[in-house]
């Protein structure tokens, strides 16, 4: 007798056994699945608070004309440079030239600019530097590190 000898009666019972198994399978109780864990939703963002500024209390600076101490136009503010804390450190002015031809960009220290109010709410921006000081300032190039910034001379202590 070989190991693979199967009796004829067992061969006939095999399909019946499979059929009974298949019929009984749908009646086996399924294991209940655990409900999916609820994904926590972040709390809804609260509305931003609003502040009201009176007319003339604040104005934009980009594109504004800057005048010198002699009340002559020096140039226009085209960019504001801020430090890592977001505080303004310098303004880039487009100076000289006519209709953009022959003009150049210079950076001036923010402390050299004075914002004077006016009745129309726009105010004047006055630079504490002369035209000669501006002409002597190197041209501003955004890729330069560090940036050369023109500033008016500091009033030092009086020497005896």
From TrEMBL:
Gene3D superfamilies with a match to the protein in the record: PRC-barrel domain
Domain PRC-barrel, chain residue ranges per copy: 63-126
Keywords noted in UniProt: Signal
Region forming the signal peptide: 1-32
Pfam families, alphabetized: PRC (PF05239)
InterPro entries in the cross-refs: PRC-brl_dom (IPR027275), PRC_barrel-like_sf (IPR011033)
Name of the protein: PRC-barrel domain-containing protein
Organism name: Rhodopila globiformis (Rhodopseudomonas globiformis)
The organism's taxonomic lineage, starting at the top: Bacteria, Pseudomonadati, Pseudomonadota, Alphaproteobacteria, Acetobacterales
